[in-house]
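To assess whether ligand presence alters the predicted conformation, the chain was also submitted together with guanosine-5'-triphosphate. Input:
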Amino acid sequence: MRLETFRARDLGSVARSAEAIFGDDVIVLQTRSVRENGETGVEVVAAAAADVDAFREQLTPTHLPLPATRRGNRPYVIALVGPTGAGKTTTIAKLASNLHAFGSWTVGMITLDTFRVAGLEQIATYAEIAGCPLEVAYDADDAARAIAHLNAVDVLLVDTPGRSPKSGARDEEWWPILRAMRPDEIHLVVPAGVRPDVASTAYNTHVAMKPTHLLLTKLDDVPGDTGVADLAALLSLPTRWLTDGLDVPADLKPAPQRILASLGLVAGQVAT
Ligand SMILES: Nc1nc2c(ncn2[C@@H]2O[C@H](COP(=O)(O)OP(=O)(O)OP(=O)(O)O)[C@@H](O)[C@H]2O)c(=O)[nH]1
Ligand SMILES: [Mg+2]
């Protein structure tokens, strides 16, 4: 989505500049007064209405299937992948214990992050607090056993090791395990405050895993959610949840509403 910022002395001039770029198909997303060189003026952020509709559609995920429609009578498997320290494990803890995430669905956890002892301890503590079962998978056979063992739960959340462009050798060990689990959703976890080029690198580093969703974390680090919508537009994936703080489980929110609100839009609102 192409967002343009226009500044002029008055609203009429600024509207004419926006129309000159976008034609009649223009939607004003934000308006504020600005002061520059001692003079007051108006600043608006505008986009093409069709682009805004496309962005809203791209951002909005399909509904989670009900437990009754479980594929092949197995849990719905949601894996979180992403750069080191992005917030994957903490977000799994939030998802497991926040009622708004899965309602009355029962949740289990599987971790593939067996490289760090501290990583295992961290998720074990969260599983205990959430009161949900946790399995550790060291290889694909373990993963199959873990899924069979946790077959009674409705949703299985899969934690994975952090991946950086330098972690190639380790990936060879856990990628096949994740693939063997046939995840229904793979959420790419990215801190909301990263620069666009860093976000693109994170995407490219994980693209072979075919991420299905974007999960932005640490919105509490981004004053006014500025740039969060641009990041979501850049990565161009649907998004269910985002996180905005250290509180487990409270700091987990529905994502499209918050991202659209950062542009002054309401979820489900038609731009034209
Ligand atoms: N401010 C803020 N910090 C967060 C948020 N989510 C997670 N963190 C912090 O980010 C740090 C890393 O979180 P983890 O959940 O361990 O991240 P990870 O992606 O699992 O990290 P690795 O397993 O090492 O790849 C921790 O200090 C968390 O407390 C958030 O929404 N806001
Ligand atoms: Mg982790």
